[in-house]
């Protein structure tokens, strides 16, 4: 097929808040002309697909027609109804437990003495404890990643939000915090009542001593306060800002759940408030906590054992590349590993800490013979890891390589005997981005450094669309990739991947749209205008896809996709800030139709973004021959793709192969 030198971008649906190239000599200065039409002639020739259709031929898209309440409900059910129903069931279950639990302890004929002694606080404390037991049965299930990955492949995934597993984990955790507070407050009143009726406490001072003794000198009191302290520390370091700033503290403090669970089991064995008749304590005085904990505890223990087994598989670092902007690329070879696009792994470097496992999004495609992650050096662990693999980001500016990047280690016959550290890998685990293969049309939206998860996805899409892996066919026929970024210079590492895809995507199946939202200085704008005149490539990105100035007009984007792909299921996958996520979520519901185009929303890359350390990198498609691909013609095509990509990578970071080389253990 002839190479298309005028392969263009699409969807210049800017909101017009940031000026485009108004002073460009090729622009028709018409105040009434829409902002997305105000482009030079050469740039318009580079437009294609949706953008060309909507800017040069089709005219304005039909306005959005308000829907009735029933239509809104039907559209809401398409994208998120089933998932919201799951959380409603979760809340409804808690309400049932509270209602029936309170009625049971308030009316139970075997607790007359307790109610007479403590009053209303007795059923309140017992009801809160019952809710806590239900929560402990659920709290571990969302963090059993292998279990979640298996369930994602079942029909349950259509109405249970497995991709919101951490959100559900947090919801259960906050339920534990709230009902623990209620349980503690009720028992503080109960301890006061015990101190008041203590026959040995005659004076006020003696009653205070009796109250303190009940709190700290009894089994239930002591274990209860230990549990409270452990829970408080876990919650303190799990808060958003502290977790991002000190992930290691969050990681270690969260393992206090072991102390929390052990004391919970002991807490119920003392049988402080006995019933009126035997049996005085349930299940032969060993408590009931363990019966609830077994629901998720057994699966969690199995997963920990599985992690230890899988981490012993032969794993080594095959290449380390230091990139600009404090980014390093780690390429890893691991036996018995099968990946899918958009997955993530947990990485441990025993040289730094045997107990720290950090999540990283995979940036390699399943079709490649290695797995790779791109790590932004920002925290304690990443800084130590960078030093361990030989990266040096601390050199003064004047000491930097003129090229700006280098290979710092490989596993191939090194002239310098540098030993790369051992790493352990757990995973890969699934995420919402795996579902992109279930659609014929997808819209991928990355905001800022939120493009990281799409590296693996875009690579895999390119391989599949070009039938480079016939054993894995794809339904995909069209991909719209939209990148919204404020400072394009800070994300130069992504240029080479987009350039390679654009060069080799001769059928225009992948449309690239880049939106620059930062305000451009007058001098920079003048340079852009001068360089853009008559150019076949964009002055900023060096891509044929033109850069759009301003934020996307999402109404126009979604309406145009609905117009171009009628009666089609469109997958919308996003990684970036929560504000934009909500906007896209609303747009999916707004433009979905039960009998027309349906937009299904999925948010990806959450595990990487939660720590704020890993969402950056320059992506290398392949530096060598992939062992998973066969056929001379196939290898020839791949060779062209790799050469284009590698040359682009050299232009961006000028990787120097004659630098410090190392070997893996």
UniProtKB/TrEMBL annotation:
Instruction: Show the GO MF annotations.
Output: metal ion binding; superoxide-generating NAD(P)H oxidase activity
Q: Where are the transmembrane segments?
A: 85-107, 127-151, 171-189, 209-237, 249-266, 286-302
In terms of PROSITE patterns, this protein maps to: FAD_FR (PS51384)
Any one Pfam family here would be FAD_binding_8
Q: Any idea where the FAD-binding FR-type domain is?
A: 310-435
- Tell me which PANTHER family the record gives: NADPH OXIDASE, SUPEROXIDE-GENERATING NADPH OXIDASE HEAVY CHAIN SUBUNIT A
Keyword annotations from UniProtKB, A to Z: Electron transport, Heme, Ion transport, Iron, Membrane, Metal-binding, Oxidoreductase, Transmembrane, Transmembrane helix, Transport
**GO terms for CC?**
NADPH oxidase complex
Bias type Polar residues, positions? 50-59
Q: How does it sit in the membrane?
A: Multi-pass membrane protein
Protein name in UniProt? Superoxide-generating NADPH oxidase heavy chain subunit A
SUPFAM superfamilies in alphabetical order: Ferredoxin reductase-like, C-terminal NADP-linked domain, Riboflavin synthase domain-like
Q: Provide the GO biological process annotations.
A: defense response; monoatomic ion transport; superoxide anion generation
State the residue spans of region: Disordered. Answer: 33-62
> Subcellular location, in the record's words?
Membrane
